[in-house]
Amino acid sequence: MTVKHALAWAKEALKEACERPQYEAELLLAYHLKQDRIYLITHDGELLQNVEEYKTLIQRRAKYEPYEYIVGSASFYDIHLEVEAGVLIPRPETEILIDVVAELIWKENITSIAEIGVGSGAISVVLARKFPRLHIIATDICEIPLKVAAKNIATFGLQNQIVLRASNLIDNVPETLQLVVSNPPYIAADFLLESNVADYEPKEALFGGSVGDELLKQIILDVKQRGIRFLACEMGYDQKEPLQDFVNKIGVKYLTFYKDLAGLDRGFVIEFD
Ligand SMILES: C[S@@+](CC[C@H](N)C(=O)[O-])C[C@H]1O[C@@H](n2cnc3c(N)ncnc32)[C@H](O)[C@@H]1O
């Protein structure tokens, strides 16, 4: 089978699972051949070695497995992070949380923070690269994220800046902190997700409780109770009102919400008294 024929076959096989079957067929063939996509155009008559291996990749994607799990890597902010099943694939909207927090770190000269729910390490790694004097304690309750984050932290040589800790929220983080950042699970338990997410991504990273915002509320309470000054979190597009009511009842110095690129409410920053 030639490159051209393999791509035609793959495009057909991916037609249901992918919005852009041709593009993903090319990405996976380039990955399989360890070449870039231009190579496929300039070598479209070349006979493909290990056709079965390529077909296996396509069949996985045709069953809705996320592209990032198949190739073991996700593009995020200005880097690529290693990912695998059991760890959330970092999402573009989380890049906004990073920009919001970066501004705060810069303005308030913050040097000591914690991240709750480190996942692949996306938030902590990008922040540590932006601020070489920043120290981060990054927690997770699951083993795989802690293992994958450790690899990504090592890849970027950030072991001196980021300490990983198995912890429920910040229970095992007694250190003095100026800010907590988190993209916690915030989806309601009965929310219907697309199969590429529901069937492949870890439940612990997605669902925040029966309503969805339970963990976010617990984080707000914990950070306030610990006397930490700032908290910045990502949240669901429909959670602004309940969280605003909750925070108003508690009483804080300052609360602001931010939107994502689609104009949806996507997160908040709190300054505590
Ligand atoms: C939505 S993912 C975010 C991962 C990563 N920070 C990102 O933005 O791509 C949430 C992460 O929180 C972790 N998690 C869930 N409940 C937790 C808890 N009670 N304490 C600490 N981490 C928790 C999950 O295992 C998962 O890795």
CATH architecture classification name of the largest domain? 3-Layer(aba) Sandwich
Q: Could you estimate the helical fraction of the residues in percent?
A: 40-55%
Q: How many strands?
A: 11
Q: Based on helices, strands and strand pairing, what is the structural class?
A: alpha/beta
- Stretches with pLDDT under 50, minimum 5 residues: none
* CATH domain fold name of the largest domain: Rossmann fold
Biggest pleated-sheet summary: 7 strands, mixed
Give short descriptive properties of this protein.
273 residues, 19% strand, elongated, alpha/beta, Rossmann fold
Task: Describe the overall structure.
- With 273 residues, the protein is of the alpha/beta class.
- It folds into two domains: 3-63; 86-271, Vaccinia Virus protein VP39 (Rossmann fold, 3-Layer(aba) Sandwich).
- It is built from twelve helices and eleven strands.
- The longest helix has 15 residues, at 94-108.
- The radius of gyration is 21 Å and the shape is elongated.
- The termini are far apart.
- S-adenosylmethionine (SAM) binds next to helix 7, strand 4 and helix 10.
